[in-house]
Amino acid sequence: MTSIKRMLQLAAMGGALAAGVTVLPATAAHAANNCDGTYTTYTYEVFCYTSDWDEFRAKVRCYKIGSSSYTTRYGAWTRVGTARSVAKCTTSEEPASGSWLFRNV
Fold first, then answer.
1. Nearest 5°: phi and psi at 31?
2. Cα(15)–Cα(9) distance, rounded to whole angstroms?
3. What phi-psi label fits residue 5: left (phi over 0), alpha (psi between -120 and 50 degrees) or beta?
4. 73 is in which domain, residue-wise?
5. What is the pLDDT of residue 65?
6. Is residue 69 part of a domain?
7. What is the domain count for the chain?
8. What is the spatial distance between Cα 86 and Cα 52, in angstroms, rounded to a whole number?
9. Short-list 29, 30, 38, 35, CA closest to 50
10. How many CB atoms lie within 10 A of CB 91?
């Protein structure tokens, strides 16, 4: 990893911490998370039943049909155990991969 790239990553992390929000991807480090993700025609939907975190959101990488372009889209932040978070692709895209993110508020 180049030193410039590493400095940019640290600066971005510092900005998130300064804002008082911790945002992390779903990882093995937080194995107490109990979440399910489901693909539909244009969406990736996530429901978290329990978690060490306060909130979660869906994240989907959308593939533009007929090209090599991808766009990342996000669902709304949702309290754990209350509702689904839905990340939507447009009608000219389809979900290529989905995951979820967590934060404490």
1. -70, -15
2. 10
3. alpha
4. 22-104
5. 87
6. yes
7. 1
8. 21
9. 35
10. 9
Residue 97, domain CATH:
2.60.40
Dig out the tokens for 15 from the structure.
């900005």
- Which pLDDT value is given to residue 32? 79
- Quote the Cα angle for 15-1-104, to 5°: 30
Spatial contact of 63 and 93, defined as CB atoms under 8 Å apart = yes
How far apart CA 62 and CA 40 sit, in angstroms, is 12
Q: Does 45 reside within a domain?
A: yes
Task: Answer yes or no: is 78 within a domain.
Answer: yes
What does the pLDDT profile of the chain (105 residues) look like in tens digits? Answer: 444 444 444 444 444 434 444 454 554 444 579 999 999 999 999 999 999 999 999 999 999 989 999 999 999 999 999 999 999 999 999 999 999 999 999
**Could you tell me the CA-to-CA distances from 15 to 8, 9, 11, 97 in Å, in that order?**
11, 10, 6, 27
Cα distance between residue 105 and residue 96, in whole Å: 29
